[in-house]
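Duplicate of #3305? Posting structure anyway:
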């Protein structure tokens, strides 16, 4: 085995952020607000958000789907990466969390770019497909319930264009994917998806050890 990815100590991670992270006071405020909530751990890391935004800029994305919006941090950073006429379709079912999200989107001046659907994501994705949106999106970010990961992935494969990018969060699952004693339904769903996409010849892939593990799948 060649050189492996460096192990980040807390001090080294802080250094990494100090020389790379470019965020706004509003982004920091939303992260702080979310951290104080009961389920704040579900929020993506700041460096992951910046990495995702960079991917969208590199591919000059204009239309994005998000599955699992929570308090809106990932939608905020992605919408900021889109051009003025860009559009992000956000899927969630929790009105309380997305009300927080909308307040920050308004303050950031990007609420007009975000179309929020409060409904089961599979229903929203099917609605988009039925409306003729097949291959009309540049990218998708999946960060929702794990049981439906495969279904979300398949629908997104239909919705993103060739050359489009699907990003899937939590694929390392705090290390639980390699714990043989962990056989929860969520853990098994993530393992199965990782294995499936590894062999899926419809996409190019890379699994990035950022945040809780981010899988990138580029549609061929």
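Output from current build:
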């Amino acid at each position: 085995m060649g050189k492996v990815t460096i192990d980040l100590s807390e001090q080294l991670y802080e250094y990494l952020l100090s020389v790379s992270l470019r965020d706004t006071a509003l982004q920091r405020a939303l992260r702080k607000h979310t951290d104080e909530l009961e389920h704040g751990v579900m929020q993506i890391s700041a460096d992951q958000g910046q990495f995702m935004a960079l991917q969208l800029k590199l591919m000059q994305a204009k239309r994005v789907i998000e599955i699992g919006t929570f308090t809106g941090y990932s939608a905020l950073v992605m919408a900021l990466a889109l051009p003025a006429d860009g559009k992000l379709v956000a899927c969630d079912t929790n009105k309380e969390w997305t009300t927080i999200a909308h307040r920050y989107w308004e303050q950031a001046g990007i609420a007009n770019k975000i179309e929020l659907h409060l409904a089961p994501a599979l229903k929203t994705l099917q609605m988009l497909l039925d409306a003729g949106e097949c291959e009309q999106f540049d990218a998708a970010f999946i960060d929702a319930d794990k049981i439906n990961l495969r279904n979300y992935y398949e629908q997104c494969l239909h919705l993103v264009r060739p050359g489009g990018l699907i990003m899937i969060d939590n694929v390392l699952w705090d290390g639980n994917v390699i714990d043989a004693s962990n056989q929860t339904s969520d853990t098994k769903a993530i393992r199965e998806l990782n294995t499936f996409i590894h062999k899926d010849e419809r996409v190019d892939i890379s699994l990035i050890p950022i945040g809780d593990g981010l899988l990138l799948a580029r549609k061929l």
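Confirmed duplicate; merging threads. The first strand starts at residue 63 and ends at 67. The chain has eight helices and seven strands.
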